[in-house]
Amino acid sequence: MKKIRVGIFGFGKTGKVIANEFLNDSQFALTWVVRKGYADHHKYASRLLGYEFDAGKIFSIEDVDNDFFRERPVDALVDFSDSSGVYLYKKAAEAGISIVSAISKYEQEEIDLIKSLAKYNRVLYSPNITLGINVLMVAAQILQKIAPHADIEIVEEHFKGKREVSGTAKRIANLLGLNEEEHLNSIRVGGIVGRHEIIFGMPNQTIRLQHESINRAAFGQGAIFAVKCLIGQPPGLYTMETIIAEMFRQNIPVY
Amino acid sequence: MKKIRVGIFGFGKTGKVIANEFLNDSQFALTWVVRKGYADHHKYASRLLGYEFDAGKIFSIEDVDNDFFRERPVDALVDFSDSSGVYLYKKAAEAGISIVSAISKYEQEEIDLIKSLAKYNRVLYSPNITLGINVLMVAAQILQKIAPHADIEIVEEHFKGKREVSGTAKRIANLLGLNEEEHLNSIRVGGIVGRHEIIFGMPNQTIRLQHESINRAAFGQGAIFAVKCLIGQPPGLYTMETIIAEMFRQNIPVY
Amino acid sequence: MKKIRVGIFGFGKTGKVIANEFLNDSQFALTWVVRKGYADHHKYASRLLGYEFDAGKIFSIEDVDNDFFRERPVDALVDFSDSSGVYLYKKAAEAGISIVSAISKYEQEEIDLIKSLAKYNRVLYSPNITLGINVLMVAAQILQKIAPHADIEIVEEHFKGKREVSGTAKRIANLLGLNEEEHLNSIRVGGIVGRHEIIFGMPNQTIRLQHESINRAAFGQGAIFAVKCLIGQPPGLYTMETIIAEMFRQNIPVY
Amino acid sequence: MKKIRVGIFGFGKTGKVIANEFLNDSQFALTWVVRKGYADHHKYASRLLGYEFDAGKIFSIEDVDNDFFRERPVDALVDFSDSSGVYLYKKAAEAGISIVSAISKYEQEEIDLIKSLAKYNRVLYSPNITLGINVLMVAAQILQKIAPHADIEIVEEHFKGKREVSGTAKRIANLLGLNEEEHLNSIRVGGIVGRHEIIFGMPNQTIRLQHESINRAAFGQGAIFAVKCLIGQPPGLYTMETIIAEMFRQNIPVY
Questions:
Q1: pLDDT at position D255
Q2: Fewer CB atoms inside 10 Å of the end CB: C or N, chain B?
Q3: Domain shared by A57 and A179, yes or no
Q4: In terms of domains, do B141 and B170 share one?
């Protein structure tokens, strides 16, 4: 079987983990990595991560000229860098490359740019690309409809150093129409990687949907899942939520 | 608005709780209660449960002759007695009464009888009629399809005196194709009313679906939910699982 | 063995549960119940709670004159009424009766009164008399000393209708020197009876101490435990916390 | 302040994490590391782990002759290798070095050897050296004494690949006198690092003591804690359990 060729934007702490997940998966070929600056320029990400083969040649963002994507073709571009990467998407899209962006925050102008590309290319944008979190989001919305009288609270737990409220938790609150101030509880202790819990309280029963992250590789697995889902799809703007929602629809049990 | 008239089979510990839930809900009128023996014969369930009005006149199962259901018409019959009640369903069905059975175990012959009635009447049969448990069952089946490589374990916790493994947990194991011996864990301690947890373990993340029962009134609320769902439906055999699965389908979020 | 004679102040929702626990325990004889007003005056609490014997004759608080406690001697007075009961403690104390108060809130003046009685009599005062909650409180204080760098958060979950923050959670925060605004999280959903969790987060591990109330009978069991603990003790002011702390000391494992 | 000098046995997956924790802690100086074979011989563990200074020179176990410990003096030897390391303890003990062994399993003969050294030196042996697990063990034993009628169950959760039952969970069962077959439940799913829960079920309340490992660095922190505890102590055989039990005793809250 032909391998799926992937290029990655970003080679920081998370970017390395993402690269590692693609390197580990025999269905994929990591073709290149684009990063800021010239550190490890033209070395192979594979070698830096301890593999005994060459893959994921490292380029600087300065190297990405008009021919970059045509000369180094991939099936999908996976972006774990920062919001500035968005301005290179056009060149990639024009070269027919599917785009998977896991950037946590964009300005409106950047989102508009993404939407414009989605008219003629497959673009997936999800600030939280983890499979499990999106399952939680979709299940919670359905459950709220089934049990409209249930009281709902969100609890998110993260390591002490995380200052801001979890964006994922805010997204969940938003989807469920819950006031963040009142119904979102943030716990900051020790080294907890990440835990989200949605509590549905009814007079005689309680339902809890819980997601725990064990490590950042979950993001890489989410990206792998996203790239695979885009294959064979028509152009358009995708999110993990829409994909998972569609998978819910297709997998409703039949008795 | 016209009230929904209900008759109940069973007035034991659970039956009383069920009657109480219907008495408490202004959308319903509890017309009668049928129980074994002649205890509190012709008294009102409402009075025995502390209400200041007459509702739910108590009859013996011996009173249920060919005219019983026609003379005391209800919209739905709710059965929390035992498997022997099934033999009176035919008379009720012929009087056009919807049937909701929450009996935990039937013989094959009894199930066949229920199926035969479902040809011309609405019959809902669910050994676990709690809303939340059925939400768990449906969500777990979908999740298994979305994350087919996840390892799944079921943990059920109940009070020390409960001898057998939870029928609900066995049903979940069965729906997910899990070997009960290997993947179903039973905790028996103190006075825990009932807790079911389904753990989906992936390499980098864990999802937990959890349901806790606070008290038996959850069964009554499930019955209320079931009776309402049957209104306006065509004849057929329903279960809470099929109803909840259908509600999942109708409530997939649209973005 | 001679039974321990008990009198109860209070016959409301909680008071009835307390009475029931004492009636159920063969080590105790429920001698009388004192309540406000004249409802069920001179009836037996035992009969009202469904027992087939006479125990716990019901008196009005107006009946408690100077001779009441001498004429109806008990070993312990258990108070689940309200703060006004405290003004009858002196008469009881002078009759040599041990006092167990589970009143949730006293004014300073009332606390002073309790302290004055403790000089010559056994008086136990605990706003939360549940065994498990006090175990949590003591264990949390020790754990904080053993792991002084751990981050600590408290989560308390209760039914939607409970307006104020859990007094128990506030007490825990206070014992641990935690700012309530910052480290105490209150979840209000559905019908949760009561759950307290203390989370100790360290960089590489997390410890959780969790207590769940199943029903109010836990208060009755706490009172039974308290009355037994006071037997044979010298006069003084006791709390469940001091008793449990002492039990911790006596039960440190020896290897 | 003078740094505490430490030598480590073992430089496998766990050994490296342990070395890293000591290198990260300014109170300690990592003097040497002894490992099997000659890989990275005479290199510095610090450099291999990414530090910019020389510490933890690597030796082969073959290098440990009669003069090794006198020529490279340390305050404590920390052993995360395997049971064979025990045969070098005598030489270390004779050089006045405190010994901390975290080996998971010893033969009786090896335990006897350790005991003989404890007559004239400080020796700490704990198969599970994590602070939190030992806190759980001690707290559980006390709680069992305080609530002797509580039903107790142990649940341990680990990654799918872990074949055997958790040794820690077996130790807890043993300390509490619980039959492993009946009361110890093992969950094996995905990538869970390690979670132990002890459930105390009483008729009206449930207490849960829970410990979650986030990563292996918890072992290193346990070793750091152990080395510090041994300073200034008389010769003898110590375990983390005895140390934590003693810390419980010294930190019982006083009101």
A1: 79
A2: N
A3: no
A4: yes
